[in-house]
Amino acid sequence: MSDTAMLRLEGVQKRYGRDEPALIDIDLALPRGQVMALIGPSGAGKSTLIRCVNRLVEPTQGEIRLEGVALTRLHGAELRRARRSMAMIFQEYALVDRLTVMENVLSGRLGYVGFWRSFLRRYPSADIETALHMLDRVGMPHAMDKRADALSGGQRQRVGIARALLQSPSLLLVDEPTASLDPRTSRQIMRLIRELCVERGLAAIINIHDVALAERFADRIVGLRDGRIVFDGRPDTLTPSVLTTIYGEEEWSTEPEPADDADEGGVSPATPMAVHGGMS
């Protein structure tokens, strides 16, 4: 594994009770600035892997290090501080429906301002200014005073992205960001995530079912099956035989879906030259 890795997983395993293990001997190294897509069938362990990184799920064994800090050994205030640098973007958005868009975005500063200042809406002016900038960057400046429950799925995901970035993370953990979105909106959201990673030098692990989106927007693809890594490589090496190894027998020779002209623009999708660092 690369010596320049910002995130390392070594021998990570997760077992839920007496069930079959969800993760088995996971070794990964994620360089700074790399966008990694996790693909694989349902139940392969993708969400479990992401949640083990930020300790929403406790690994059964193994070690996880972020910037040299052993996350698996942290507890209490130390773990809360470490989580500041790991922002989560959720499949179901995890917004508070009764709060405004602005209030939801500002909740990304909870790890810095504390519960009571957040509860009383007493955020520093610098945080408010940054939140306004982030809403503009994700294309939502007009919606700052709307309640979250008045937004479409794509709009809610944009607010979730803005909230995550307000946390000032070095690592994004993204769990099925397009699962509830139509194809065009899915491309827009994946393009936005990639653009923001490039702009800010962020590393990202994205759990995604859509193989075409993974190939188009990730620098690196890791395939999981039955809790094990069965593929780790560049998007252009994801051949039909590799996909069969990950998912089982299927017809992989379908024509790619044409992109809408109005949907194009921004940072280019990943190319072979975009891969950072080595593979684990």
TrEMBL record:
<dbReference type="InterPro" id="IPR027417">
    <property type="entry name" value="P-loop_NTPase"/>
</dbReference>
<feature type="domain" description="ABC transporter">
    <location>
        <begin position="7"/>
        <end position="251"/>
    </location>
</feature>
<protein>
    <submittedName>
        <fullName>Phosphonate transport system ATP-binding protein</fullName>
    </submittedName>
</protein>
<dbReference type="Pfam" id="PF00005">
    <property type="entry name" value="ABC_tran"/>
</dbReference>
<dbReference type="InterPro" id="IPR050086">
    <property type="entry name" value="MetN_ABC_transporter-like"/>
</dbReference>
<keyword id="KW-1278">Translocase</keyword>
<dbReference type="InterPro" id="IPR003593">
    <property type="entry name" value="AAA+_ATPase"/>
</dbReference>
<keyword id="KW-1003">Cell membrane</keyword>
<dbReference type="InterPro" id="IPR017871">
    <property type="entry name" value="ABC_transporter-like_CS"/>
</dbReference>
<keyword id="KW-0813">Transport</keyword>
<keyword id="KW-0472">Membrane</keyword>
<dbReference type="InterPro" id="IPR012693">
    <property type="entry name" value="ABC_transpr_PhnC"/>
</dbReference>
<dbReference type="GO" id="GO:0016887">
    <property type="term" value="F:ATP hydrolysis activity"/>
</dbReference>
<feature type="region of interest" description="Disordered">
    <location>
        <begin position="250"/>
        <end position="280"/>
    </location>
</feature>
<keyword id="KW-0067">ATP-binding</keyword>
<dbReference type="GO" id="GO:0005886">
    <property type="term" value="C:plasma membrane"/>
</dbReference>
<dbReference type="InterPro" id="IPR003439">
    <property type="entry name" value="ABC_transporter-like_ATP-bd"/>
</dbReference>
<keyword id="KW-0547">Nucleotide-binding</keyword>
<feature type="compositionally biased region" description="Acidic residues">
    <location>
        <begin position="250"/>
        <end position="264"/>
    </location>
</feature>
<dbReference type="GO" id="GO:0005524">
    <property type="term" value="F:ATP binding"/>
</dbReference>
<dbReference type="GO" id="GO:0015416">
    <property type="term" value="F:ABC-type phosphonate transporter activity"/>
</dbReference>
